[in-house]
Amino acid sequence: MNSVRIKRGWAGKTVKADLVIALLLLAVSSGAVAGDEPLWRSSLQFHGFLSQGFVWTSANRWYGDSEEGSLDFTEMGLNLSFRPVGPLRLAAQGVFRRSGRLNPHEVRLDYALADYTFLSTAQGRLGIMLGRVKNPLGLYNETRDVAFTRPTIFLPQSVYFDRTRNFGLANDGFQFYGEYSTAWGDWFLRAGAGWPNGTRDKEFERLILGRNWDGEFEPRLSGIGRLVYEYQGGMVRLAVTGAIVNTEYQPGKNNPFQRGWLAFKPVIFSAQYNGEKLTITGEYALRFSKFDDFGIYFPDQSVTGESYYLQASYRIVPKVEVVGRYDVYFADRDDTSGRKYAKLTGNPRHKRFARDWTAGIRWDITPWWMVRAEYHNVYGTGWLAVSENGDFSDARKRWHMFTFLTAFRF
Predict the structure, then answer these.
(1) Segment 168-186 mean pLDDT
(2) How far is the C-alpha of 16 from the C-alpha of 209, rounded, in Å?
(3) pTM score > 0.85 for this model?
């Protein structure tokens, strides 16, 4: 398993988070087995999933050499949860993922946490989660690894980037949560702090600095929060998410950059209607990024990105669903055409935006098997990965993508 580390905890030491959390889970689970508690046996849950995708693009590369047709899209995961005592739940999930040159064979600890509910009433509850906790980012981030829980094969890339997905997936830290029910709706709050995962991923450095240099981005203490309102049991869902993600760049030898700081502050507004057959979802995101002290080759700057999508799905029959989506991404809301960027850098302007029309169909063959097919008509290359497309010198700004996926769960 790949080692994902927290940079400098409260005592100033670097520890391997996945190993420590796994050992804690093992120790507690062993004690629960020895105690032979009926609650432990009755609450034990073990689940898994496996999906395999195929991607073909008319130009550009997405999840492998997709212009020739690529099978380099595989997801597999196993998760376990149980309650050693009433208010305490322990849970963990390991994931294998293959996604072209982005992650040729990634094995990671997706989450591993202790969830303690310290107040529970008829109207709501309060609790805390400690460990590696999934980030409550928008509507889909917490369950994005499982194909059955996604509205499409690939989530809208304007908000849920696959090229830097690990950066937003989870934090090593804590999150408080609260739920409160009223006669006019239900409220859900999650808020916490920790050290973000994924800052050391090579694609993250390529995206920020253009290539892999001798050095890496280190995680720093960051925070996230989301407030959700639901009406009539989720028929209407409204949410707002905010985060402050801090990283520090540590340059190595033969590196033109200095020790620098990146502060990333996304804000996401979400709305969803869930009818008997029709579901309509929309999300709007602003991404505030501030770069400081990287040196003369990367002057201090602030950039605000903008994204949004509108999506509708309709269940023709209980096991068959069709979906359509319009998805828009701008790297810089003050340069939506990319012309200023192209004039300054000489790079293609279509690297700074993307507009994606998507149409798809889903068939749930059984509760455990699902197949999907999708078509994407894309203008722009803003969310394509540098690791798969290099300097974009041969990239095409107008391109098409066909994707197919089969998935199994238990």
Answers:
(1) 96
(2) 27
(3) yes
